[in-house]
Every structure is written in C-alpha cells, then in structure tokens.
Write the structure tokens for this entry.
Amino acid sequence: MARTPSRASKTSLYRISLEPEAPFLTAAKSEYTDREEFFIENVTVGSRSALLVYGQIPNASPDWLDHAQSLTSFRPPCINNTSASLLLLRLDDEADHAYGLTWGMGHLLISSNVMDDGFGLRFALRRADAEQVSALTTHALDTLPRTARLSVFGGTTINSFGMEEIGEVVSRLVGKIPADGFSSDKPGTPTFITVKGADALSVPLGKTAKDALSDLHLIDSVIRNEVPAEGLEHLENTRPLRPGNPKIELLEKRFNEVVADLKPGRLALSWPAEWNEDAGEPAKYRITGTTTGTVETPDLQLEALRTPLAENPDPAKLERLRKIHIQGLNEDGGVMSRKISGDKWISFECDLDDERFVMQRGRWYNVGGAYIEMLDRRVDRILEREATVALPPWPMEWKKKRDSNKYKLGRAKEFSYNNWAADSNPDLLLHGSPDDPDRATSQRFRGLRSPSPRWHTNSRKAPR
C-alpha cells in the first residue's frame, strides 16, 4: 500500500520583532539583499502579504584548492554556491512581530537585532514531553563557561541530563510533541512530531498556504498564552535581567572599568547560544569590526576581543565589543553562521551589592539572588510533604552543670535520643559502622524499650 504523502515539510521558523508599519525588508541584512546574486519578490501566502528574499552565496574558490594544488600541482576546477531563502509575513496587520521561514542558509539573511532570541526554545518548553527529550544544550553561568550538548537516541526524561536547577541556561531542546492541531496530524491515529527549539523553531509546516497559516497561528497562540509543560518549568527559572533594570547600567560600568586588565577567571570565551550546532564545528573564524580590519583565524582566542577594547575609553568598551562580529567558516571558507556580535562570545562575572552577576550571551543574569529563591522553593516543597514515620517524643534529661555540680533539666542530647529511638522502635535504623564510637555506645542501649533510667520525661525532681 502506497504511503500517504505528508501534508507538512520541515522548516526553520524565526519570530521577528517588527513594528506594524515597518517594511519587511528591514528585517533582512542589506549585505545580502544588495548583492546582484539576490532577488526580492512581493508575494502572498493565502490572504497574507509576504516578502520572499532568495539567492546564491557564491564561493568561487574554496580554501582547500590552494592546498590541493600545492601538493599535486593541479588545481581542481571546483566552485561552491550556497542557496539561501527567507520568507517574511505577518499573521496580523497590527502585530508587533512577523515570522520568517528559512530554507538553505536563509538564516544568514535575518538581521540579528530584530530576531526574537529563544523563540523556538519557548515553544518547545510549552509543548514538549518531559519524558521524551532527545537533546539538550546548556550553558553554565560560571567563570568556566562550559557548554554541554547531550543527546539520547529515542529520548529520555529531562532529569537524565543532569542539569542544575539554577546556574545553567538552556539554549536548545529537541523533543517530541503531539501533532494535535498541526497540519501533520493524522485524525484517529496518535501522531507525534519532533521539534528543535533554540532561537529558531524547526518544525513541520503545512505545504499549502492554508495549512501553513493554520500552523503558524497555532504556534503564535502557544507562545502568547501557554506556560511551560509539566516537568520543564525549571528550565525557565534562570532568566536574564529585564531591559530597563537599573542594575544593568551599573554592571555595564563595572565591565567597562575592569575588562582590559581582568585577573584570570573573571572573563572567558563561551559559545553563543545562537550558534547553530547542527552545522558542525567551524574550521576557522572571521572577525570583523576591529581597527585592524577583517581577520581570519583557525583558533579563536580571548585576546582577539580584549585587545580592541583596550584601545577605547572605559565608557565605550562594551559598546565597542558589540560592534565586533565573529562568523564561523567551514573548510572551504564558506560561512556556517551569521555574524554574531562579540558580547555574545563573552562570559563575565562580577559582584554587586553582595550579589553575583554573570554576563553571558550578551545578557546579565543574577546568579546569587536566583539561587536563594531556588533554595526557598525547594525547602517549601520539602515542608509541604507529610512524614510517614512517627518518631517518639523527645524526652527531657537532667544534666549536671560543670561549674556548680548542680543539675538542670533540658532536652536530651541528639546522640542519646537517636540511640533510644532506634531501640524503642524496630522500624527505625541507627546508621553507623561497628568501629564507630557512636555505634559502640549505641550497643549499650540495645534491648531497651523505654527511656534510659537517667531520663526524666515527667518528673521535675532533680537527681541527688
């Protein structure tokens, strides 16, 4: 029996901040749209006006040709051309955002300053199953800017990834979601689709205009109205300081003051969250925006960003860092990523008002305050549980004062109580090794089923 053709096709979807009256073209990079290899078409998707940008990114001379020629004295007649396409449309004329569908290297065409960071991740957290997560990318908010990329074939519970509830930021999640409401759903048959959520959302969208618009409306509704799925709530616990927070200005001032002469451990390179790890590891990096012009290096070092900052006055250092861009290249010299601003490649830590803050991925995070809030939540959850074990009452004990040899009535020592409780209830276990002096002492209480004779739980009369 022939297989029924799918009604949807995998697409990379971006959410773009765009005012209602702003033209679509402002969301695309002019460095591509101004090229003769690129074309712009006003189109429609169903009833919605849209803009299609498409073209070729040529690389007439791959980098490996020089090496091959130097070894063989023959230059292969090879060229590389990479296609890229971006479709921009709004679901509502009054909306303050648009959606961008990309194919090929189309993600390179989107201006980073209008991209809704983490859009795909927010959708995945709201629809994914916490028991069926197949890949997770996390970034540790610490002086060691560790990035962990873990995947499990077939999916597993989110707890299996060993992520800390605080101090780590998730930038990408891959998991299965029910296809309910999507054009890829098959009525009468439980259907699941795999989504990849980061800055972009990789998801099957309808092949017809009607189905695609229906899928986009569903995604838009989920982002605006739903909360993270059960078991995935904590992945949004560590959030950046909101724009306008008065501490941001103070933190940026602190960065500007000390970045050029930091001690080791306070500043480090880190992978930007918007790096598309599906593209693989870069062979080299192209750095632009420095006073020395464009530089390409196979080994990205921290000094490539710190040195240009040293040339600027303190108030302008962070601003200068944001004007430096780094782009990953493959073995052929072709681009693998969009140009990512220098502040996205930096991890910086400092203390302010007895709290610890970390700048990572271009954002400031309050690590200390968030950690305390997380501990409070954990304690509240623990105290909400009712104990299933009933412990005997804690007895009082007469204790002799060292200075006067007189007795006073007070609560028994914890050690004494633990021994007595274990002996009075066979369901309680006193832990300790045979060589432990506490364990040896506990042996003297074996066989007792009532408080030690020297304990006085009721009498107020002191011993003689």
The two ends are 97 Å apart (CA to CA). The CA atoms of residues 47 and 209 lie 9 Å apart. The longest strand covers residues 48-59.
